[in-house]
Design brief:
The chain has 2 domains: 143 residues, P-loop containing nucleotide triphosphate hydrolases (Rossmann fold, 3-Layer(aba) Sandwich); 65 residues. The protein is α/β, with parallel strands linked by helices. The strands form 2 sheets. The protein has a 5-stranded parallel β-sheet, sandwiched between helices. A 4-stranded antiparallel β-sheet has the order 2-1-4-5. The protein contains 7 helices and 9 strands; from the N terminus they run E-E-E-H-E-E-H-E-H-H-H-E-H-E-E-H. The chain is 30% helix and 24% strand. Strand 4 and strand 5 form a beta hairpin.
Length: 223
């Protein structure tokens, strides 16, 4: 079996002095698709923020390619793409300008490649439209177009299906499968029931029980 790309060891997270989950241990290998599930307030976004390096308010270890992320921070950041619950789009700019700015931070793409990414999310006709004129769903799709430009191995996505229609959901599921087939890892939250082949689940409520005395330990993830 191949070595894990990402490994969590006995991870615990708190928010507002309340323990959200504890003893979370997971190994993610190339090709893994992992959905984090649980009710609102159970710590899904908190977990993703910890994995993305935005929050350091956790106990336990996060390893990337066998190294603690604190020791491999730049390498980890260069191989990671994080999309939060908010689209993270500058509304004064056009979709083309937003993605051009993003590409300059990662790998340079020309305008043709960026327009191709926008076409993948059905926004090619809006490439030069200021984002403040776009709907919530269109703003989400501008953010998702980054996936078509990404060379990152690890995608961490918070509710990527929000404000996306059925066609968009289907296309995003296909993109996840393609990324996994190329050796990538996708970790995401969603309230939707998905039927992706090989999709695994982490139920954070299982790890809330792990924090209780005599609970018998934490559950693993479901295939």
């Amino acid at each position: 079996m191949t070595s894990p790309l990402l490994e969590l060891r006995q991870l615990s997270c708190e928010r507002d002095e309340r323990l959200l989950f504890s003893e979370l241990s997971v190994q993610c290998r190339a090709g893994d698709l992992l959905q984090i599930v649980g009710p609102n307030g159970c710590g899904k976004t908190t977990l993703l923020r910890a994995l993305a390096g935005i929050s350091t308010n956790y106990r336990g270890d996060i390893l990337w390619r066998g190294q603690p992320v604190q020791q491999a921070r730049w390498r980890y950041a260069s191989e990671l793409l994080f999309l939060g619950h908010l689209p993270g789009i500058k509304k004064a700019l056009t979709p083309l300008e937003n993605l051009r700015w993003y590409s300059e931070l990662t790998a340079p793409y020309d305008s043709f490649q960026i327009r191709e990414a926008l076409a993948q999310v059905q926004l090619d006709a809006y490439a030069d439209t200021p984002c403040y004129q776009l709907s919530a769903g269109q703003l989400r799709r501008v953010a998702l177009a980054r996936l078509y430009l990404s060379q990152a191995s690890l995608w961490i996505l918070d509710e990527p299906f929000t404000a996306i229609d059925k066609l968009g959901v289907t296309q995003l599921e296909l993109l996840f499968q393609q990324h996994a087939a190329q050796g990538g890892v996708v970790i995401f939250t969603s309230h939707q029931d998905l039927t992706l082949p090989g999709l695994k689940h982490i139920h954070l409520l299982d790890y809330q029980l792990a924090a209780e005395p005599n609970s018998g330990g934490a559950a693993g993830y479901d295939d």
